[in-house]
Amino acid sequence: MSDLSATLSRVKPSPTIAVTTKAQELKAAGRDVIGLGAGEPDFDTPDHIKAAGIRAIEEGKTKYTAVDGIAELKAAICAKFKRDNGLEYVPAQVSVASGGKQILYNALMATLNPGDEVVIPAPYWVSYPDMVLLAGGEPVVVPAGIETGFKLTPEALEAAITPKTRWFIFNSPSNPTGAGYTWDELKGLTDVLMRHPHVWVMTDDMYEHLAYDDFQFCTPAQVEPALYDRTLTCNGVSKAYCMTGWRIGYAAGPERLIGAMRKIQSQSTSNPCTISQWAAVEALNGSHDFITENNAVFTRRRDLVVSMLNEIEGVECPVPNGAFYVYPSIAGLIGKTSAGGALIEDDEAFATALLEETGVAVVFGAAFGLSPNFRVSYATSDTALKEACGRIQAFCEGMT
User: Does the reported pTM lie above 0.90?
Assistant: First the structure.
């Protein structure tokens, strides 16, 4: 339609949501579908967090709040940053929004001008480039392939920075790969950033607590304190706290930036859900024992999926450090034909044929900016994962 904004032509719908929707539609039509596309834990929100939300309702805490969060939640966020990351913030440096996505979007809208560039390592979370485009900026995508463990090298970051670079977006552990940066690896990137004082850092730490084996999470302002004044450290309660539908994300950074984000939010959504804010206070301040228990389950599922996918000739599946995704390469399958007659010319063709022929829904790698791969979310039951990986094995083995 000619009366729609030209800005819409710069973006596309979320591919991950599209895959999940397609799987749900096929399941509703009677197909035997196993969805491995959803980026959310299958665990329920812990009881003590749910109880805090119920208590907020019963106590009448259902009115408007300050635009970017209640004082109690901001205090809990400050305590979290000091406890977990050794970072000191005051409430005026904190913003709370309706999910981590809104936090990132507010920051980009508040800071980008036409022509500003944002460096984004690929594979990336699908929304990063489109949010940059919506805000009028230009995404600069830098491949970080399987040969580097899906991690950006200092040399690649250095080469991507120009006088127009406004932000560097950093995500560890990563969606879609689960790759996590060690302290030394991150120090290599922060050393580059120290040489370019005009570049700000936007960290997406949403999977901070979903870390496995001996991997130790760290965040840029923690590794290089001199970056503190130009870093927006972003996080939320969605993943580790099993609160995806509660829609609470948060960030801490320089007061001037937080104030600009508050202004954007004041004219868009206003405050996040009041009930969810009180539940988030309990999530941050209350018992975290369930995270250790959930991570043990995720580790078992990760090992199951990695093992079964690596049994397939033509597939290479690295072991992730965190999150709940694997990102296997199908380079050895490109050019083959499925048993159903589909030519596997790229990872989108692979995912489409896999869904149509086996009922297994995955997200193709091009959606994340790096091919030929696909993403599997192992945030579902062991039984479903075994069945799904078995179908993937049979699908690949049936190719000629």
Answer: yes
